[in-house]
Design brief:
The chain has a single domain, classed as Aminopeptidase (3-Layer(aba) Sandwich), CATH 3.40.630. The chain is 32% helix and 35% strand. The protein is built from 6 helices and 8 strands, in the order ββαααβββαβαββα.
Length: 181
């Protein structure tokens, strides 16, 4: 996977073996896993994810890929972006930032940089993001970037032993173009 994006404070690149310990550490934190599909995360899971991703060509339809968020000042992994290539024109994204790096605008900066890449370089038509309805910080972030909330599914997913609700957000290439003007 050959991808290298930069913003004022971040380098966004393919997840590498040297990232896997830090990746597993922040994903194992209960506050990080709260709204995620996993309950516990281990170094072994991170290795399996990396191995699975490395067997696919980046942007292959039907697959998820993780990109590392590297803080330029420290060269440390501070989070990751998830990309699911739904079809030739649509991508679902997600973002995870280690708790000690939250609240600094890094997730928004990462998503802005990713949207430029998806819409301007890869020429995708639509980008979506799904979040737990209880994850208000993520919902506010997506709205602030310019995503449109398209759905609120109530008790649509049985998640960690209980029914949960989700928001679906989306942005079109034309929306991004208008916002960038």
């Amino acid at each position: 996977m050959d991808i290298h994006l930069t913003s004022s404070r971040l380098t966004i690149r393919a997840l590498a073996p040297c990232d896997l310990h830090a990746f597993a550490q922040y994903r194992a934190m209960p506050e990080v896993a709260l709204y995620q599909s996993w309950s516990q995360y281990s170094y072994q899971k991170a290795c399996r994810l990396y191995e699975h991703m490395s067997q696919q060509v980046f942007a292959t339809v039907g697959y998820w890929f993780q990109l590392a968020l590297i803080e330029q000042d420290t060269h440390r992994l501070i989070g990751d972006l998830a990309l699911h290539f739904v079809d030739e024109q649509q991508v679902e994204i997600g973002v995870t930032v280690a708790p000690e790096h939250q609240g600094r605008g890094l997730a928004g900066e990462a998503i802005d940089t990713l949207l430029d890449y998806l819409f301007l370089e890869l020429k995708k038509h639509r980008v979506t993001a799904v979040t737990d309805a209880d994850n208000q910080a993520c919902a506010r972030l997506l709205k602030r970037i310019g995503f449109r909330q398209e759905a609120h599914f109530v008790d649509n997913i049985f998640f960690k032993g209980a029914w949960g609700s989700e928001y679906v957000f989306a942005m079109l290439a034309s929306d991004w173009s208008r916002l960038r003007r």
